[in-house]
């Protein structure tokens, strides 16, 4: 057999990077690339095919060909160590301070985010891996510029679950034969290579959250990656566990099939509400007014199409013995403003209470100050039980028509909503391009998923000639000129030199008004990064 081409590293090699970029680890990435890159590309092409069919007027439905899987008797693997009780999961990026704060937060699980909350700048990619490895070794420390020292607690820490990039992103600093590696395989591969054995030795395991899947075939690809990686590194089959985010509209029709593909590695499903909304806007952007959502902030978890999706998710998971994990309420507490804090705590309590009552086994929070509320709500629901997998919810039936019922979402499309979308989108992109992928804006958490809703909604309103309500009552037709004017006005309202937003505004306009819809805003944003 001819030797595999080597991985070329074009990114800087800062202090300690060679600990992650070892020849053996790079060799493993090359093997993953050779084994799976062509299938990754085929599956991305399949996404485009399905989207084109949708634009022609077709609709999604449950797949006729996989009915035997939906009707069959099977269950996913028993929960792995550290993933039995998941009542509170904190999410966040993997810089050293956040890593320590998240692991010490009292949450059962930490979603170590290399995805929605992360800019995949080279430094974030490699230093995130170093921080994860040091955290598992319990050697991670951090000293803030003000001199505050952060260390890991002595006792139990949250279980680490890593979320790699989605299948669509590439890593431009790692090349094989001049071709970029897939971001997903880089994030997965480096973590698995360096930390799988370490995690096993500590009684835990290599655990993952898998984002933005659009079909069970994409889940099959992940499963094959897991089988390959375990075999290659001599890790027992079935050690990896993965929770799949159901956060694209097509995936909502394939929940059972996704669990089935991954069944020996499955740790359940999560309701990724923000990307789900983005996906609905994106998939139906060219389908006229039947699929228009109201202002982003008016779409709540009680909208009929969202309710249908979360109900189906819980029912599907529990039927198969899998955890159902709730999503993110975007309200961020404040240690400085008691009024903001009170609102955030009340909103999060309401959200988690609904999820616990619906049967979810745990849920996400974005901030350590929200851990106690989520815990309290799920404690009240679960009592002594670690989860509520025994609540099968056989009474729930969800039809394709209910999942497709975007039209019944209450709420208006307003000029204020349009302005908020534009302003938040520009501010977020400025932060993303500066290397920070999660940020609080107007006391709400903004990350790649929420920013995608903002920009795709502007695109949809513009390309469907929507008229938004105005305070004066006359209404305002969304045009390219209007969006450009508001983008200019909103950036001049922001603190500091408006020129600081020039690059972000230009990018926002590119992804919000261009005739051709850009699939993910992070694609052009990444090309602008060094
Ligand atoms: C759609 C989705 O995918 S949701 C999941 C992806 N999104 C996320 O994970 C967002 C996670 N959350 C965050 O990144 C942050 O909470 C933000 C950016 C929203 C707000 O952060 P900040 O402005 O720093 O909040 P704040 O100043 O109140 O933080 C207080 C302390 O809590 C820490 N903290 C805040 N959020 C987190 C977190 N998620 N994990 C760990 N520590 C955190 C801060 O580091 C800070 O620590 P310090 O007191 O030691 O300095
Ligand atoms: O990843 C989570 C989401 O809501 O998107
Ligand atoms: Mg998401």
UniProtKB/TrEMBL annotation:
Residues 6-67 form the Malate synthase N-terminal domain. Signal peptide: none annotated. Residues 413-528 form the Malate synthase C-terminal domain. Pfam families: MS_C, MS_N, MS_TIM-barrel. The active site is at 163 (proton acceptor), 447 (proton donor). One of its GO terms (cellular component) is cytoplasm. Pathway: Carbohydrate metabolism; glyoxylate cycle; (S)-malate from isocitrate: step 2/2. InterPro entries: Malate_synth_C_sf (IPR044856), Malate_synth_sf (IPR011076), Malate_synthA (IPR006252), Malate_synthase_CS (IPR019830), Malate_synthase_TIM (IPR001465), MS_C (IPR048355), MS_N (IPR048356), MS_N_TIM-barrel_dom (IPR046363). CDD domains: malate_synt_A. Keywords: Glyoxylate bypass, Transferase, Tricarboxylic acid cycle. It comes from the Bacteria. Its EC number is 2.3.3.9. Residues 159-405 form the Malate synthase TIM barrel domain. It catalyses: glyoxylate + acetyl-CoA + H2O = (S)-malate + CoA + H(+). One of its GO terms (molecular function) is malate synthase activity. PROSITE patterns: MALATE_SYNTHASE (PS00510). One of its GO terms (biological process) is tricarboxylic acid cycle. PANTHER family: MALATE SYNTHASE (PTHR42902), MALATE SYNTHASE 1-RELATED (PTHR42902:SF1). Belongs to the malate synthase family. This is Malate synthase. It comes from Micromonospora pisi.
